[in-house]
Specification:
two-stranded antiparallel sheet; seven-stranded mixed β-sheet; about 270 residues; alpha/beta; 9 strands
Length: about 270
């Protein structure tokens, strides 16, 4: 595939380290799936390791010139589909609903990486594994523990249904052109069942995000915008109202979700 010029508008930093590309592909292939999706194949550094070893693969690429090059190379292969699409606006749920297992892998654009991760982990019901190359700061937020500076709503919501780990740390020189930031590869494995039971996943997500909007404030102050009797809800959940959202475990957020269902909503 021909080398092409970088297009800053698309945030393109092409993976140029062939050894690293093979290692990332191996992470995606550790647990076989029926269907694979590669986000942003670009010049095909990962693709060339995936295509010969998977039963079906969808390549999502936003750049029309790269789409043409990928179709020239892989278009004749019946198990490969190349689609011109923006992965940050892709309908993940319906596009993967008919398969029994899905693996998603990709070198994600820095500017929309968090959104793509959130959509994939939240919408792909049959997800088995996700392997994401991300800006290192985003990767560290995904795997952060309660009380750490990187812990936030992304950390809580990702671990509800996944085991996550940073598998590789990547230097800027692995890309062409080199980005100004460091990267990391995160592996997310879908659990057979959620770590904790929550009454309503969408409501749980809304609660977690709402509490983290005031991450430096005491919970009694943040929660008062959610429930009229916020301090009582917190105490019934066994949580000191003077704590902050960044100190709560997944289990504590789940307790609040259960108890908060029956609490009176704060007056707007």
């Amino acid at each position: 595939m021909r080398t092409r010029r970088h297009r800053p508008r698309l945030g393109q930093h092409f993976l140029a380290d062939r050894v690293l590309a093979r290692r990332i592909a191996e992470l995606a292939l550790e647990e076989p799936s029926e269907f694979y999706v590669e986000v942003g194949p670009g010049l095909g550094a990962l693709t060339e390791h995936l295509v010969p070893r998977v039963p079906r693969i969808l390549l999502l690429e936003i750049d029309p010139s790269l789409v043409r090059a990928l179709r020239d190379r892989y278009g004749s292969m019946p198990h490969v589909e190349v689609r011109e699409a923006d992965a940050s606006e892709f309908d993940w749920k319906s596009s993967t609903a008919s398969v029994s297992s899905v693996t998603v892998v990709g070198n994600l654009p820095y500017r929309v990486g968090t959104r793509i991760v959130t959509d994939v982990l939240g919408q792909v019901d049959k997800l088995r594994t996700a392997v994401f190359m991300l800006q290192r700061e985003v990767a560290e937020r995904l795997v952060a523990e309660p009380g750490s500076r990187d812990y936030g709503s992304l950390s809580v919501l990702a671990r509800l249904r996944h085991d996550l780990r940073i598998a590789l740390r990547v230097r800027p020189g692995a890309f062409r052109p080199p980005p100004k930031v460091h990267s990391a590869v995160v592996v997310a494995r879908r659990l057979s069942r959620p770590r904790v039971e929550v009454p309503d996943v969408a409501a749980f997500e809304g609660l977690v995000r709402a509490l983290f909007r005031g991450r430096r404030k005491q919970l009694r102050n943040v929660a008062s915008s959610i429930w009229q009797d916020a301090e009582a809800v917190l105490r019934r959940a066994g949580i000191d109202p003077s704590r902050r959202a960044e100190t709560l475990s997944l289990e504590e957020f789940a307790r609040l979700a259960h108890l908060g269902r029956h609490a009176r909503a704060a007056r707007s």
